[in-house]
Amino acid sequence: MRLKNSTLILLITVVATVLFIPFLGSVHLFDWDEINFAECSREMIKLHDYTRVYIDYLPFWEKPPMFFWMQSTAMKWFGVTEFAARFPNAICGIATLLVVYAVGRRIYDTRFGILWALAYGGSLFPNMYFKSGIIDPWFNLFIFLSLYNFILYHWKKNGFDKEGLTKPLYYYVIWSGVFMGLAILTKGQVALMIFLLVSGVYLIYNRFKIYFNWGHALLFLVISFLVLSTWYAYETITRGTWFITEFLKYQYRLFTTHDADQAGFFGYHYIVLLVGCFPASILAIPAFFKGKYNSRFDKDFKKWMVILFWVVTVLFTIVQSRIIHYSSLAWFPVTFLAAYSIYKWELNEAVYKKYVGVLLGILGGIISLLILGVAIIGLKVRLLAPYVDDVFAKANMEADVHWGGWEGIVGVLLVVALIIGIRKLKQGQFVRAAFTLFGAMAIVVFLASAIIVPKVEKYSQAASIDFFIARQGEDCYVHCLGFKSYGVLFYTRKEKPTNPDSYNEEWLLKGNIDKPVYFVTKVDREQNYKLPQLRELYRKNGFVFLKREPPAQ
């Protein structure tokens, strides 16, 4: 029995809600990005200033305010919590699955829409990131929607054989401009750069044999600018050009330099996509090659998605800073191509390749072993500590975390699903294989976020976060020595400083302080802070907690 479109929309919404919303607040936010962004949103509320972004109550020009508007709104609804910080991306997850379903259904049919939603929601990192508090999920969605509306404009303008394009050309241009403006408001002008690069590569690939109206191009830019004006123009008119100038300088530095912790090897993003977008990454491989097309728009949309993949991966390979989520926009084309492979196999318009099953087994087996290994290592982690050279890591391993060993069932579940899914692929039951593989991965991520991640977090940062939380409401300063953490701001619920000297580490360590100062450092760096005025309170899991009292009057 075929389900109605409205029923399928409701079903996708319910499934996505179940996948993405539970356990959002079950683990502390992670340094740096999650806590950094949550703190920006908290300070928006504290300062009652929603037009400028701050961190530690100082202007933070690295990001535009769109995502922080979402987070601060969620914090007003649910309180300043981990749940509130991650809630906007859970909503983005629901919206993204509905978008790819609707786009897939409009371009091909309902089956394709379901497969694309299944591939996106059932791949490793795409699923995980909807449980996070970082900016990229919304940024990626806005860019994709802008590009999609431009593709519809191009099809109608150039007479493609796609039915249903009943709206006037300016309709698609306006929506493309709106979503581009939102994308730039979310993370910056790199959104427009990607859009123009993808369009430019497509234009060159087609030997400039496409037509567009320059008036429509101007309309696109005007609409984008009007959306941007809700912040860019307002900030410039009311406060001058300083903040916007610093923001643009930072965007340039981001492309030309890297931080010490953000350098990676040349093929970094391809490995990240191969592993992080599993199993879609493997299923997508056959679709990169030429195939049988049953319409002009069929071939063209696939061409757009392949170009989008290469533009994103090449661009962020050139960029000096290499971070996992920089190439996350490529999840749209990767999951599309995975759905495309399955769809074509099901219609007998493409031949299933045996290497797909082999690669699924190899990479899936490695991922399963890693998940299973986490549980096994957890049981024996203290026995392994003497063999670890890193002093801080060794101390991390002393954390009191209870492992039952049964947590490895998550990895076993993936192994079972791989065996069943690969077998169904060999039997030609391609849609059932897709439901098995993607459904299992979605369940694995769901269980891992509830069972494994909270335990792993206890080794890395929980000791310092607990210390910060204990300082809430206390009239004191809290400062990290030898390392950077945004947790010291968010989890102490830091108020706006009244003494400008409190930003000065030297003053906190040796100056005439006016209230107690708590310091947090790491065991491998404590030798740099052996000062008589610092009293050690305790040490835990690699962190050392110190206190300095105000000098006697």
Automatic annotation (TrEMBL):
The keyword S-adenosyl-L-methionine does not apply. Pfam families: PMT_2. The keyword Cytoplasm does not apply. The chain crosses the membrane at residues 7-25, 83-102, 114-132, 138-156, 168-184, 190-205, 217-234, 268-289, 301-318, 324-343, 355-381, 401-422, 434-453. Keywords: Cell membrane, Glycosyltransferase, Membrane, Transferase, Transmembrane, Transmembrane helix. Residues 63-231 form the Glycosyltransferase RgtA/B/C/D-like domain. It is found in: Cell membrane. It is a multi-pass membrane protein. InterPro entries: LipidA_mod_glycosyltrf_83, RgtA/B/C-like. This is Glycosyltransferase RgtA/B/C/D-like domain-containing protein.
